[in-house]
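Illustration 12: Roadblock/LC7 domain-containing protein.
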Amino acid sequence: MAAEAPILDEFRRLRARVPQLTGALAAGVDGLVLAHDTPGVEPDGLAALTAAALGVAVRVTDATGRGDFRELLMRGTEGYVATYAAGRTAVLTLLAEDGVNVGRLHLEGRRAGARIGELVDAEAAPVRRSPAKSAAKEPAKPVPTRTRTARAARTNANARTTTES
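Figure caption equivalent — predicted structure in token form:
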């Protein structure tokens, strides 16, 4: 992958800004490693687990009406695992010591995820040769919406009544 060197440069900048960072991995949403700096952690396994966690996180945010996936934070007894969206087709996973400033981790992780997303998305974008040869896009299909059924007005005929015996 041509974007591997710039992604590794981004990892080096991240480590300088967040000293408690112990590892970084960029992976496709399919679980394939794009670039990694994860000493002591097997990158292919981490990428596969990240993809699985991402799948669950996407379903949870969707099921609860929270919109598109942005980030996932897990804390263990020895530190943090944070995963951030990185463009349309990738994620950034960061490993950090327990004493990390979580606000700083989020700030730098979000920024790095955006930059890595730009790199990966630019590489994945198709090369346009000429406007005449580009295929016309199909219009987006409307999203079905739920509508409430109107309630019938209560009348004396269908209202509940209580009678005393």
